[in-house]
Design goal:
Helices cover about 80% and strands about 0% of the residues. It is an all-alpha fold. A two-stranded antiparallel sheet has the order 1-2. The longest helix has about 35 residues, at about 1-35.
């Protein structure tokens, strides 16, 4: 029962984090008008969450290994609560920027902490499946950031709509501190400099190198659509209102939840993680190419393509499961933090570059339909190149063990 209660809390907190990742896509047109933001500014504002999230992985990784998930997640969520309050009061880009930074920092340890908790309490063969379950159940938060947020914003305005996640975030922080169990941490506390060096050494693990491009690209491509451009695309190309946009994004979010659970189940059943990642990535490229060929085919066509991207695009738990076999247990908190940071750096880069692209081609006089044709082509190309690099990775590896003096050496083995 204690495990069920802890997983319930993690699902709730993860749902809050997912809400913040995707909320801007639904209210983007209204937000841009109210804060006088262009496409580039909108892209930068959305990417700010992911940049701060990525940078915060350094203190999060250290805190998770030293303090455990309960204190780290609970205390950091206080920053997200403060950031939401500031966003509610924002009158311009600068204030909204500060708010996004604080929200990103506050949500930074949530997923990494959840994976660390699962990794310490469940058998390795159950890791991807249990993680996928947490993601699938936590996706309710992502769903709240679609039609419910759109309807609430349409009724109360986007500012007052944020009062609901503000209250839920505060509740999530208190829930973590109250109901998550204490971690059984080693009494041998490593010096801070040594722990920082351990994070840096994660990047030197050669078995991870072919996997890293997929960390940079996979979630970034998914969130470029779900987290930013789905709303503007549906508004500018098809003139859909807030509620109609929210309905289509809701369908994509439901597909993401179902797809995450499906990929986790298939991985548990067949134990072919690498092959499953490759197939899921290729099945994500296909609808992106269809959108490239027919960007103005209609809202139903766009919804079908978005649903397909959501169904196959969130292979992040599989990637993390793949990487765990290359990391020694003592380095898993920091290792997961580094890889999570890499993933969110990819999101920030893709959102910033895509915002610059849309603004540039709009200035050249291209119609919205042609602007988004180039966007979908860019996303498909990014994911295809990452999939090609990932194909050279080993299916699994023996964990890289820290040698005397803190140096990491790779144990022979793996395939």
């Amino acid at each position: 029962m204690r495990r069920v209660g802890a997983l319930s809390v993690l699902c709730f907190v993860y749902g809050i984090s997912l809400f913040y990742r995707g909320m801007i896509s639904v209210i983007a047109p209204e937000l841009a008008a109210d804060l006088a933001l262009g496409e580039s500014g909108l892209g930068l504002l959305s990417s700010t969450f992911f940049i701060s999230f990525a940078i915060a992985q350094v203190p999060c990784g250290l805190a998770l290994d030293r303090l455990g998930a309960r204190l780290t997640i609970g205390l950091f969520m206080g920053f997200a609560t403060l950031g939401t309050a500031i966003f509610w009061m924002a009158e311009g880009y600068a204030t909204a920027f500060v708010a996004q930074v604080l929200i990103g920092i506050g949500c930074a340890p949530v997923f990494t902490g959840a994976m660390l908790y699962i990794g310490r309490r469940y058998h390795p063969e159950q890791f991807a499946y249990v993680t996928a379950m947490v993601i699938a159940l936590g996706s309710v938060g992502d769903l709240l950031g679609t039609t419910p947020l759109a309807l609430l914003a349409q009724w109360l305005g986007w500012r007052n709509a944020l009062l609901v996640p503000l209250a839920l975030t505060l509740l999530a922080a208190c829930g973590c501190l109250r109901w998550l169990p204490k971690d059984h941490l080693s009494a041998d506390k490593q010096p801070l400099a040594h722990m920082l060096g351990g994070m840096a050494r994660v990047v030197t693990v050669r078995g991870l190198w072919p996997i890293m491009p997929m960390f940079l690209a996979s979630y970034a491509v998914l969130m470029a659509i779900r987290g930013l451009w789905s709303g503007p695309y549906l508004a500018e190309v098809f003139a859909l209102n807030t509620a109609d946009r929210g309905t289509i994004v809701l369908a994509m979010s439901v597909a993401m939840a179902l797809g995450t659970f499906l990929l986790g189940y298939l991985n548990k059943r067949f134990r072919r993680t690498k092959e499953l990642v490759v197939v899921s990535a290729l099945l994500t490229v296909v609808p992106l190419l269809l959108l490239t060929a027919h960007p103005g085919a209609g809202p139903r066509f766009a919804m079908g393509a978005f649903v397909a991207v959501g169904l196959f695009g969130f292979n992040y738990p599989l990637l993390m499961s793949h990487c765990r076999s290359f990391l020694a247990p003592a380095y898993q908190g920091r290792g997961m933090a580094v890889l999570t940071a890499l993933s969110f750096i990819g999101v920030a880069l893709v959102q910033s570059v895509s915002g610059w692209l849309i603004e540039r081609v709009a200035a050249m006089g291209l119609a919205p339909e042609e602007q988004y044709r180039l966007l979908f082509l860019l996303l498909a190309a990014i994911l295809a190149v990452a999939t090609l690099a990932y194909g050279f990775s080993r299916s699994e590896g023996s964990a890289d063990q820290p040698a005397p003096g803190g140096r990491m050496v790779q144990v022979a083995g793996g395939r």
